[in-house]
Amino acid sequence: MRDRDKIIQMARDTRAYTFTFLRWLLLGGIVGGVGGVIGAVFSKAVEIVTEVRGANSWLLYLLPLGGLAIVGIYKLCRVSGVGTNEVFRGVRKESGVSVFLAPAIFLGTVITHLLGGSAGREGAALQLGGSVATLFGKVFKLKEMDRHILTMCGMSAVFAAVFGTPMGACIFAVEVVFVGRMLSAALFPCMVSSVTAYGVAKLMGAHAEHFEVGVIPAFTPDTLWKVLAVSVCGAVVSMLFCWVMHTGSHLFARYFKNEFLRVAVGGVLLIALTLLLGTNDYNGGGMHVIERVFHEGVVRPEAFLLKMLFTSITIGAGYKGGEIVPTLFIGATMGGTVALLIGMDPAFGAAVGIAALFSGVTNCPITTILLSIELFGGEGAVFYLIAAIVSFLLSGYFSLYSGQRMVFSKLREEEVHRRGH
After folding, report:
1. Cα 367-335-387 angle, rounded to 5 deg
2. Are residues 358 and 291 in the same domain?
3. Listed residues 143, 177, 203: the one ending a domain
4. What's the rounded Cα separation, in Å, for the pair 177 and 174?
5. Among candidates 200, 198, 202, 205, which has minimal Cα distance to 169?
6. Which CATH number fits the domain that encloses residue 359?
7. For position 414, what pLDDT does the model report?
8. How many domains, in total, are found in the chain?
9. Helix, coil or strand: residue 408
């Protein structure tokens, strides 16, 4: 009788696993396909407007007007105040994300990049993905928990399409919402959506981000202490970056209650700073500066601090985009600077610095390791592992995302349930 019960249970389990496999293969594939198309179009749009801005420096003077347009678009779409944190909350709550967030964040980010705001693409990718997934959740009439997973699929999909990093995108969506607790049921759906989106975006001509590190040093005591030095500095700078970002937003909200006035003032400040410094290095994402560190070993020691200031003003004032590309910028320039001080190759220092910064500001060490391998290759994986975990521990509960939840302590085996700060 027991054998019969076991056989019946095995049959039920097999049916359940098969059904779940096919179900998420379909749903994840659909979200991934749509996310791939959107991500590829979005990446191309940002690339085009960045080139246009580079050829027409006078566009910077239109930044305040562009900010007014962004605020107007968000009010028209009725998504004022909605951002990445609301996408994270959509993974935990039944509300989901407004489908009108997609066109708003798309246009808002493109305008920001066209006119010289200092922002990245990750925020837009996560919000686009979350908005699209919410729409499909309603179309397919999914249950609440399934809609949560579908939102994570959308995040994975557009992130993978925009950055060309399917491994990092898959785990990021699962790891970032609840620090210390990964929803294993979301792994397969997110894998399907991220890989599908990556493939679709690649077919559409989107290119994956990749940086040539050059020669990776041997694993020796000398190399180890230098990697640890960059990692510790990365943890400190990641805490500073989080503090600067949150402080900027609070100060703008406190002193400029009107959103139109707030964004206009932010635009004027960015113009003034750009003219004062006499360079456009801190406008837009700044990928050319990152590439300069890797290809030429050239880095200005103050660059990472100035990028923090520009990004804090941009996002705090109400311009749209994300903080991850600025994180790559800050990590590369900080890592390159420290590397030159301690006698390490600046390109390798930049790679370690990016790993440390990303892990510190997102609290996602596993994502960081995978993302680093995709960005820099696997030869230096052990060093990126060290940087990610050291920075994760030393950065405490600081986070770029106030919507992130710290479930478990970084110090001991206990639940803490804290918000990122």
Report:
1. 35
2. yes
3. 203
4. 7
5. 198
6. 1.10.3080.10
7. 81
8. 2
9. strand
296 to each of 86, 219, 292, 348, 350, how far by Cα in Å?
40, 24, 5, 12, 12
Which DSSP category does 58 fall into? G
Structure tokens of 364? 């996602």
Q: Which residues contact 188 (CB under 8 A, 6 or more apart)?
A: 21, 24, 28
Shared domain for 137 and 263, answered yes or no, is: no
Round the CA-based radius of gyration of the chain to a whole number and report it.
Answer: 21
Q: What one-character-per-residue DSSP string does 121-142 give?
A: SHHHHHHHHHHHHHHHHHHTT-
- Residue 188 forms part of a structural domain: yes
The domain of 381 spans 221-419
Residue 355 sits at φ, ψ, to 5 deg, of -60, -45
**Partner residues linked to 23 by β-bridges:** none
CB 158 within 8 A of CB 46: no
Instruction: Tell me whether residue 213 is in a domain.
Output: no
Alpha carbon distance 353, 246 (integer Å): 22
Q: What is the strand order of the sheet 415-419 is part of?
A: 178-179, 405-408, 415-419
Q: Which residues contact 363 (CB under 8 A, 6 or more apart)?
A: 176, 179, 392, 395, 399, 404, 406, 420
Helix (H) or strand (E) holding 93: none
* Per-residue pLDDT at 126: 84
Q: Which of 328, 283, 337 is nearest to 306 (CA)?
A: 283
pLDDT at 417: 66
The two structure tokens encoding residue 119: 């922002």
pLDDT at 93 (0 to 100): 64
Q: For residue 421, what pLDDT is reported? A: 66
Per-residue DSSP letter, 406: E
Helices 166-175 and 187-203, packing angle to 10 deg: 140
Contact assessment for residue 161 and residue 201, using Cβ atoms and an 8 Å cutoff: yes
For the chain, list residues with pLDDT below 50: none
pLDDT value of position 90: 62
DSSP string over 316-382: HHT----SHHHHHHHHHHHHHHHHHHHT--HHHHHHHHHHHHHHHHH--HHHHHHHHHHHH-STTHH
CA atoms within 13 A on the CB side of 12: 6
